[in-house]
């Protein structure tokens, strides 16, 4: 098949998932054309079946707001016509679903039918999409998609709850390449971070308010009082200065490292003992699944789709949003009990297999095949 994939090229989960899907499809012999405004972060290696088409938005003094969506639709039309694309798979509804609708209409006038599949990822529905400014366009373009998928049952339910969707939303849960995350820890790396054999706690996110990174810092401060440990914070975003300042206030800077955006997250996960995800909401929580694939148990909130991946008392623990006491209590319990930690690590790894790339990618292929003549 010749598949066009439209996504955000950034570190966010939707872009990561779309890129990993494209790479997996290319490995299976499909031709994949990424259409986005920058080379996706996880698209680093060469693959003869992968093509990347950059969306360029011309500047003009009149444009206070460069018309990205118009440029995106036009690029879609160009790529589809010139590469004989069979279908378009857009990740994150805003503005990709409406741009795809426009491209589909333009191509329809030229006698070319292009099926559009929209995958909903989370904030496109739960936060941004619900905003009155976007809602009519989001509802319309989702309904006009030939197929709609959501990355968790929770997100499907949220979508039906908040939008008037008259079509079936299929759930295809996110996936992880377990082989890639099943790495041996690099001893030298572990020694640099935890020279005295301290436990390593990890958080990775885009540091948006919704991630409640301050809760991560508070939890770690409590853990540190009981368990010799270090905290690694991966990623960057608006709340990073707030978290940094909280570390200073709590006097835990020597045991905390902000390492910024990292491409090789699997190497950091390989040396980690526990992953913390304190979000107000996660449609799925791909970062938590990647941790589990690396054999790292997860202490998370029970928000959104997180209970669909993190099994309470088995692969980690679930707590109510903001319940710092409960999350630190569980973290201390796990980190101070070697047998329990070993068992949870094994459980996390075993459970991640249910979401392995080899199980999930064929579901997308099956979906695509329904739209081919
Ligand atoms: O986590 C983010 O804020 C980034 C966001 C995105 O769209 O890139 O992530 C969403 O999609 C991911 C991949 O499907 C999910 O794993 C995340 O849970 C989801 N984020 C939220 O729902 C807040």
UniProtKB/TrEMBL annotation:
GO terms for molecular function: glycosyltransferase activity. Residues 190-348 form the Glycosyl transferase family domain. Residues 11-180 form the Glycosyltransferase subfamily 4-like N-terminal domain. GO terms for biological process: bacillithiol biosynthetic process. This is N-acetyl-alpha-D-glucosaminyl L-malate synthase BshA. It comes from Pseudobacter ginsenosidimutans.
């Amino acid at each position: 098949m010749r598949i066009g994939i439209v996504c955000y090229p950034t570190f966010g989960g939707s872009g990561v998932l779309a890129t990993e899907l494209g790479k997996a499809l290319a490995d299976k012999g499909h031709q994949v054309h990424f259409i986005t405004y920058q080379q996706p972060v996880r698209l680093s290696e060469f693959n003869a079946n992968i093509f990347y088409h950059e969306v360029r938005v011309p500047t003009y003094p009149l444009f206070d707001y460069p018309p990205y969506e118009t440029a995106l639709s036009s690029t879609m039309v160009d790529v589809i016509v010139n590469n004989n694309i069979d279908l378009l798979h857009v990740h994150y509804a805003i503005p990709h679903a409406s741009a795809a609708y426009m491209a589909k209409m333009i191509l329809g006038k030229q006698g070319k039918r292009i099926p559009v599949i929209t995958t909903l990822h989370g904030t496109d529905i739960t936060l941004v999409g619900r905003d009155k400014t976007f809602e009519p366009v989001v509802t319309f373009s989702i309904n006009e998609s030939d197929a709609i998928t959501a990355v968790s049952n929770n997100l499907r339910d949220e979508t039906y709850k908040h939008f008037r969707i008259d079509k079936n939303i299929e759930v295809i849960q996110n996936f992880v390449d377990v082989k890639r995350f099943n790495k041996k820890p690099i001893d030298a790396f572990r020694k640099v971070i935890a020279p005295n054999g301290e436990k390593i706690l990890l958080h990775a996110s885009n540091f948006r308010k919704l991630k409640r990174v301050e809760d991560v810092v508070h939890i770690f401060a409590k853990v540190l009082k009981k368990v010799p440990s270090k905290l690694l914070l991966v990623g960057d975003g608006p709340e990073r200065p707030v978290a940094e300042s909280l570390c200073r206030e709590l006097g835990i800077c020597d045991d905390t490292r902000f390492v910024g955006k990292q491409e090789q997250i699997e190497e950091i996960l390989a040396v980690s003992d526990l992953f913390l995800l304190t979000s107000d909401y996660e449609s799925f929580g791909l970062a938590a699944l990647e941790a589990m694939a690396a054999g790292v148990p997860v202490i998370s909130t029970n928000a959104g789709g997180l209970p669909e991946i993190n099994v309470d008392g088995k692969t980690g623990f679930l707590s109510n949003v903001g319940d710092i006491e409960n999350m630190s209590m569980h973290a201390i319990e796990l980190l101070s009990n070697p047998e329990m930690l070993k068992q949870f690590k094994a459980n996390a790894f075993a459970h991640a297999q249910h979401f392995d790339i080899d199980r999930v990618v064929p579901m997308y292929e099956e979906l695509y095949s329904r739209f081919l003549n």
